[in-house]
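Per-record layout

source: Streptomyces vulcanius
name: Class I SAM-dependent methyltransferase
length: 287
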Amino acid sequence: MVVGWEWDETLFAGSASYYRRGRVPYAPGLADVLAEVLGLDGRGRLLDVGCGPGIVALGLARLFGEIVGVDPDEGMIAEAGRAAEEDGVAGKARWVRARAEELPAGLGTFDVVTFAQSFHWMDRELVAATVRGMLRPGGVLVHISDLKAEDRSPASVEGLPYPAVPHTAVQELVRRYLGPVRRAGRGVLAQGTPGGEAAVFAGAGFSGPRRYVVPGGQALERTYDDVVAWAFSMSYAAPHLFGTRRDDFEEDLRRLLREASPAGRFSERQPGTEIFVWHVTSADGGE
C-alpha cells in the first residue's frame, strides 16, 4: 500500500466513461505475444485484477474459455460489461465489483492472473500472496505496463504531421486547479505510487520473471476530445476532484489544446508494452 495514503472509493470516480478513449492502447501484438509465450489456446481462465473498463481482459478474451475482471469502481465495471456486449464475448466474461484485497471472493482458480498498471494501488504483499493461492498448478502471474524508458517528449514526434500532445502543460494546468501535490481520491500522494514490484512478487513465492517487450513506435493521431478524455481518465485529474470548477478546467484545457495545435490534431508515438511473467515457486524451489 502507498505509504501515507489510504484508498477510498473516489479514486477513479467519474473517470470510467473517459478511460477507453483517453488512454493510449497497449502495443499491437500484446495478445499474440502472450499466446505464444504462455501457450494459450482458447481454454482456461483469466483473472484481471484492477481491470478498469476491461481493456486488457477483453483484448485477451479469444485466448481463454472464461475471463473474470475485478475492480472496485462501479463505473469501470459497468463500462467493461458494455464493452463485452459490444465485442460479443459477454457469455464468457464476468465482472466483479470488489477490491483486490477482498480476493479470493469465491472466484475459484485460474491459469493466468494479470495486473495491468493496477498493482501499485493495492496492498501489494497481501494481494500477491492471495493470487498465488488462486493459480492452478503451472499457472502464471503477468505484470503489464507501458515501457517507461521510451521518449515521449515533443522530439519523439519529429517527422509526424502534428505537434506532440502537450502533456507537461496539461499537468501544469491540473496543478493550477488542484494544487502542487498529486491528488488521489480524497487524499494526496506526496511521494507518488510505489515501485519495486519484483521484490513483492518474489517475496510472495513467485519465481522469475521472464521479460518480454511488445514494440511500439507506431504513429497515432489524437484529437482535442481524446486528450481531454486522457486527462479525466487519470486518477490525479478525476472529474470529481474539480468540484464546481470542472467545466472551467475543461474550458481552460481546450483553450490550451487549441493554442498548441490549431489544426485540432496531435501526433503521438505508440508506447511499447513491457510484460513480466512470474511462475509459482514450488516447495522444493522449482516451478
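summary: The mean pLDDT is 95. Residues 16-280 form a domain with the Rossmann fold fold (CATH 3.40.50.150).
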